[in-house]
Specification:
The protein is an alpha/beta fold. Helix content is about 25%, strand content about 20%. It has five helices and nine strands.
Length: about 300
């Protein structure tokens, strides 16, 4: 192995370091010199095995076996659910055979089975799902809805069921609109009471034979249903604390904005002109009066 000679400037800089840093700095200089020597065509520095003293091969120059043509693996996420999907397909066919009048169709995605029913079949279908020995869906996990404004029946009511006995989940879907209600299943599942109230509050879907169908999440006298697609994001009213009246007040929402020039290369939100102050007087707090000095104590 050829002897290495560090520059004098490097030696002086290393000698000025504390004793605890000299050794790492020397190794750093050797590493930098060895990489530069390799680039210049000199033989690279090889390390030795501390036990046997034999020189270890340089992994940069060791020949690697050919890897062949690289191909991306084709992974289908539904493959691992193939066995479950076959069983769910068979069970879906069984449900349609038992209730051909009410179940319109079913679908299987991975390990999830979903059946589609008409609103008139809600009570018969859920009675079967709860009481039949091959179903035993005795727990209602959730009731929600989805708004599709372009459909004839814009609301899709979704029931998520759980069978504790068979450790199985089932999704049931039906449809409704603003005027056609859905039968309530509170007579079968007590837990459906608040779920149906939430769907009514958020979407405006009516449930017939519900014992207490009223809003549950929004305030009394709330206008509209927040989760509908045609409901504005800002709402219609705002709630705030009125300092003068010393109470919470409801006011119509007013969002105003000064004229903005979108032409001429200016920034989109650069204000043009002084604008107009449209802050309501109820938002403007009066200027506090100066406090009177306290009388001096004698």
């Amino acid at each position: 192995m050829a002897s290495l000679r560090l520059p004098a400037r490097s030696l002086r800089s290393i000698s000025s370091l504390p004793s605890t840093l000299r050794y790492p700095a020397t190794r750093c200089q050797l590493r930098q010199f060895s990489s530069s020597a390799t680039r210049n065509g000199a033989s690279p520095i090889t390390s030795k095995d501390p036990k046997t003293g034999e020189e270890l091969p340089n992994m940069r120059t060791v020949k690697r076996p050919p890897v062949g043509e690289l191909r991306a693996p084709v992974v289908n996420p539904t493959d691992k659910y193939a066995s479950q999907a076959e069983q769910l397909h068979a069970y879906g066919q069984y449900l349609m055979t038992c209730l051909p009048k009410f179940i319109q169709q079913f679908s299987v995605w991975k390990d999830e089975l979903c059946i589609y029913i008409a609103p008139q079949g809600v009570i018969p279908v859920f009675t079967f799902l709860k009481s039949h020995h091959a179903a035993q869906y005795t727990m209602i996990a959730d009731i929600t809805a989805v708004d599709y404004p372009t459909r004839q029946y814009r609301f899709e009511v979704v029931y998520n069921m759980l069978s504790v006995l068979y450790n199985s989940r089932l999704r049931v879907k039906t449809y409704a609109d603003e005027t056609s209600p859905v039968p309530s299943i509170t007579s079968l599942y007590d837990g459906a009471n608040w779920y149906e109230r939430e769907v009514y509050d958020m979407f405006g879907v009516f449930f017939t034979d519900h014992p207490d169908l009223r809003r549950i999440m929004t305030d009394y006298g709330f206008d509209g249903h927040p989760l509908r697609k045609d409901f504005p994001l800002t709402g219609y009213t705002e709630v705030r604390w009125d300092e003068e009246k010393k109470r919470i007040v409801y006011e119509p929402l007013e969002l105003t904005q000064a004229f903005r020039n979108f032409e001429g290369g200016t920034a989109a939100w650069e204000q043009v002109g002084p604008g107009t102050d449209r802050t309501p007087d109820s938002f403007k707090l009066p200027t506090p009066k100066p406090e009177e000095p306290a009388p001096e104590k004698k």
